[in-house]
Each structure stands twice: as structure tokens, then as C-alpha cells.
Fold:
Amino acid sequence: MASADSETRPQEAIPQAVKIIIAGGFGAGKTTLVASVSEITPLSTEEVMTEASYGVDDIGGVEHKTTTTVALDFGRITINHDIVLYLFGTPGQNRFWFMWDELAEGALGAVVLADTRRLDTCFHAVDFFERRGVPFVVAVNRFEGSTVYREEEVREALDVSAEVPIVLADARERESCKEVLVELVTHVIRGRDPVMSG
Amino acid sequence: MRTDGVHGHEAAADGPPEETLRDPVPNTRRHDGEPGEERFLRPFAVTAGDPGAHAVLGPEHAGVDMLSLVVAARVPGRHEWLRPEREAILDHALRARTVVELAAEVGLPVGQVRGIVAAMIADGSLQRCGPSRPLGRQDILHAVLAGLCSL
Structure:
């Protein structure tokens, strides 16, 4: 077949794709945060798993078992010619953790969105990133009508170490979400480059 | 003013829910000639029965992950009429795209697209592309920080 190389081989610079994970319990505002800072309307894809047998059986060729489809939302921020940042909202329910491993692989870091009315829903996320050694910040999403907690109270309730930044955020506000991401990346750089911490 | 109970389902009230649970059949509607008519194909049918292409889990997948960048290395051919997924992927990969974007655009689960993409790289239909300027982790972090600050 005639090659389409001349048309399809891109002459433009190909950027490096990097990612940040937005985690938190169901309804904590992950999708809202992604939408607030993404330059595109967040895209959605799916993952399919064979629920009954995952982790138990070899599922190859045994497609008649119960399968589950879980949505995965993501947004994009073009940083510059060389880098495109993807923001992935994690599936909120614990049983979809099989996806977290791949999402976390190579991620620059993670934001754990905490809903103070249901702080317990983000325990698992905190635990996951601590165990995986993925640097993260906790962003306390301010919901109308929720009690305002001080940073220390949230820190104590979540039992995260003193180095992990805890910031207040409003997932609906672009500026606020931007600050959360800046806080995360600053935290990651500080952790990797002790010269910068001071 | 919402009640806590309503807030508990905040995502559903504000837009698409963060998780959707559906029945097994992937949505391949967008490839169909007939609008609104679903094609009922099992995942292994979409990947042409190739067990290697069908893995729905695991980053071990031939080194192709969600953020791998690929570009079409040829135009869709006549033999693609039985494999509309490949044609759709080729159509969307005229410029370098990530696997996860292709999945969203062709409306297939990302695990399946990863498998198909791996097979298409192997048969020369797609070409994997690395970044034009590979950067170290620290350079990336500083660039991302600067980029976010200037948003």
C-alpha cells in the first residue's frame, strides 16, 4: 500500500505526555476539579473488567463472566511545546482500584480531594499513595454547608505526615484548582531536590 | 441550599456521574453505519480474537500505556472494512495522539484500544513516537510548575 508517510508523519514537535492523578472519594469533586483547569472539555473513556474473576482466575478467553465498565475522566493542559499535562480523575469506588496502579505508574504526583463531611472516603487514597511512594497533597474541597476545619484537624483526622501539604480548595474555581496543582508540583520538587527546601 | 443527602450524589446532580456502571458490552456505536444502532460485540471480537490484544488489565501490555503517543503510519486500507475500530484509530491518529485520547475519541475502553494499538504498532499500521525533546524528570517538574503558574 502506498505510504501516507509524507502526510501523516508529523513535522511539528511531539510533546512529552505527563500526568497528575486527582483522587478522592465518590462525589468529592474530582471531575469538577479536572473540568475547572482543563483546556478541553474533559474526555471520558472506559475500562472493562471481569469482576467476578479478577485477581482470582485467569480471565483470558472467559468473557462470559460478569463484566463491569468503569468511566475514566481526564483533562489536558498544554504546558509548553514540549510538555502536555494530563489530569486523571480516579474512579472513586474502592473496588476499581485495579485502575489506580496503572494510573499511578509514572505520575508526577497526586491530589487527594477531601470532603470534610465524609473524610473517611479519602483514607484509601491517602493510604494508596503513601504505600506507592507517589507524592501527594490533600486538597480540602469546600462544600456549601460543610463545617470549616483547620488544617491541623484535617491532618490529624487523616493521619498524614507533616510534610504533606494540606490546602483548602474550591474545585469549581479555576484559580483555586491551579493553586492546588502548583502546591503539588512545588511539593514534588521540594521532595526531590532538598536544595530547594529551606 | 442542598441537604447533605443531595450532596452525597453531587456528581449526579451536577453533570455526568463520576462512575458509570454498565453492562458488559462496550459502546461501539460510533463506528456503526446506522446511527443509534449498537453493535453487540464481545471485547475479543473487537481485537480479532488476538488474546494478546485483548488484555483489559495491566501495564505490562507490550510497553504501550495510556499516555503512549502513536501516529498513523499508513492510510486506512480496503481490508479495514471488517475492522472499523482500526480504521477509526487510524483516522484519529493522523497527528500524534495518546492512547487514552484515541480511546475517548473512538469510544472504546482504553484497555482494548491499548491492545489494538499494540497490535497495530506490531504490524506497522501505527508508529510509536517519542517526544521530540526528551526531558528529565526534574526539568519536566520545573516546566510544569512554570506552566501552571502562568495559566
User: Anything to note?
Assistant: Strands of chain A lie at 16-24, 43-50, 67-78, 83-89, 109-115, 136-141, 166-169. Chain A has six helices and seven strands.
